[in-house]
# Entry
Amino acid sequence: MVREGRVGIGTSSPAWELEVANLTAGEGAEVGAKADDATGAIAAYSSTLGAPFEHYAGRVSLFAGLETPGLDLRADGSTGDIRFYSGGFAESNEKMRIKSNGNVGIGTTNPQSKLSVGGYGVSDSSIYAEGRNIGVRSYGEKFGVYGYCYDDSGDNHGVYGTAGNSGSGDAIAVLAIVDRDGSGTYWSGYFHDRYSGGTYNGLYADLRTGDAIDIAEYILDTEGNTEAGDVLVADPDNDESVIKASIPYDSTVVGIVSTEPHLLMGMELVMDEETGKMYEDVNAARLALAGQVPVKVTDENGPIKRGDLLTTSSKAGYAMKWTLVDVSQAEDFEQLKSMLAENERRRNAVVAKALENLDSGEGKVMALVNLQ
# Structure
């Protein structure tokens, strides 16, 4: 014990109120505690500590013994925080904080969520995760991963993904998979512009691929009874709305209801763009604009062969083989004029081109959308 009231064990000049020292090179000094089977210690190790403990060399450790089930850090006060410093003891050297409410902040002293990383002024990645299979895995009832980035200048990326591969495997920068086991609305990706400043370019992809093979858009369904494969005509009583076709060679035909479109437009008709929630009181059909789609067909005008043009039939929602009137059967000039007029009308009633055969009856065939 020295004059200032300090106590030294293993040293004659303690720098602390209690100092335990082991000045032998290659060793360390430990201050331990024991209660029944629980043991623990705080230790300082020599910079020349040898194998197999060289990774502790020149460092201080707080540890629980081998038979002790764990190590606790406690701040019992209702507003007590646990703070971690490195590089010095100044306020700016704080690297992590655990708040009394359980929020953890890394690079911030006031975490507002369960884990807050970085903040303004962070020069590199806020979170960097590296894994052989999965870099970051997140689960949440509202958001699995939520990215937000704001700066007054320069480029900003809320979520940024990059992938590379020097071998033969796949490289996917962002992979989104939806498990559909409920009755709600599911999105593998949802992109929306909330503000009016600048130029909004939506989603850019230099190459777009997918397992579906048509492009569609939502259009109002007046009667709310259309289904995939139905042939539709413009509703004569309502603007921008459709009903099932039920008149042969109807020149008001507008298309076919898509079964599973690769690209679907017109979402603002059926969905609140701010929340992503589908409107419950809107009936709309997914009208195929281009590509291949299954279409309901009937043999009302004979068997359908690959390459045949299709038109509306008398069966609601079904297409039939498109043909022209044989003008060679005209008996006089007036009948010829009538036939020619009918053929002109029919030319405006083509909806698709068949890619499969229908020998008899009714069914579905793949067809190429070919509205005329």
In short: Residues 76-125 form one domain. The longest strand covers residues 284-298. The two ends are 103 Å apart (CA to CA). The mean pLDDT is 85.
